[in-house]
Amino acid sequence: MIPESANATLFEKRCARVFREMCDAPGVNVSEAEFGEIRSPFDDPAVIFRRLESSKSLPLGSEVQRNFFRFHEIKMYWRSSRPDSHMVGEFHLTHLYRSVAGNHVSNTREGKTDRERELYDELRIFDDTPSTGTGRLTALRVVNGSSNPEIWFFDMRPRTLPMDLDYGAYLDTLLATKGTIGWQYLFCDVEFGDPGFTPVVKGLAEMLEVFPQLFPDYDYSDLKARFRERT
Q1: Whose CA is closest to 76, among 158, 177, 160?
Q2: Which of 29, 33, 34, 204 has its CA 20 to 30 A from that of 1?
Q3: Which of 80, 79, 157, 165 is nearest to 127 (CA)?
Q4: Mind listing the pLDDT tens digit for each residue in 155-177?
Q5: Is the separation of the CB atoms in 153 and 184 below 8 Å?
Q6: Smallest Cα–Cα separation from 74: which of 100, 99, 40, 49?
Q7: What is the Cα gyration radius of the chain?
Q8: Which residues are CB-contacts of 2 (< 8 A; sequence separation ≥ 6)?
């Protein structure tokens, strides 16, 4: 869990709450719920956002800044312990500056066209799934002058899907879903009729049935509506 600190950011406190919620939830086995190291100067939001603006031409706005965290990484991995359950979740968040400076999608994926290669070079991974090994990841689109970058989602097919939310809304939804595998599809232009979606659909359906009971402080109404639209 997060060390007690007067410097803890709001987002760090929210993550710590999610860790506690999942560890206390009946029918859930949490394998990982960890905060990584804190390294100077990555712990100073004023320094980080000033550097991102001056060296990366990213004058990031409030939707990004309100979700700043100091840790090298924040990760959680869990599975339902109920028999025949399809519900599993993971998130692995990387510090914002580390993502922007080094986590190029083009380092791991090669585009097939000039347009795709250009896009991949603009995308920076900030959330992925190393423990479940699903190959799914999420990236910020780093374009000069952007205050609220686009969010793109990748899956195993591979597909590159723009998401209908921004960085702040992504992290809000991540914490509500606890990283349930495939939740990102609810914000992409996809339909769940393809048989390849079957495990994801079953897991999301179970999550949307179980989580409102386990975590009544979160609002799942929009997620339920998006799920109905795709099924």
Answers
A1: 177
A2: 204
A3: 165
A4: 877 788 999 999 999 999 999 99
A5: yes
A6: 99
A7: 17
A8: 8, 12, 13, 15, 16, 19, 35
* Residue numbers in the chain where pLDDT is lower than 70: 1-6
Q: Take residue 221 and report the two structure tokens written for it.
A: 């109404």
pTM of the predicted structure, to 2 decimals: 0.95
Question: Looking at residue 1, what is its pLDDT?
Answer: 57
Q: Which two tokens stand for residue 220?
A: 């799942």
Contact predicate 154/180, CB 8 Å: no
Contact call for residues 156 and 134 (beta carbons, < 8 A): yes
Residue 192: Cβ within 10 Å count: 19
Q: Which helix (H) or strand (E) holds 118?
A: helix 114-122
Phi, psi of 135 (to 5 degrees): 80, 0
Q: Residue 3 has what pLDDT?
A: 58
Closest CA to 45 of 15, 12, 78: 12
Q: Residue 229, Cβ neighbours under 10 Å: how many? A: 10
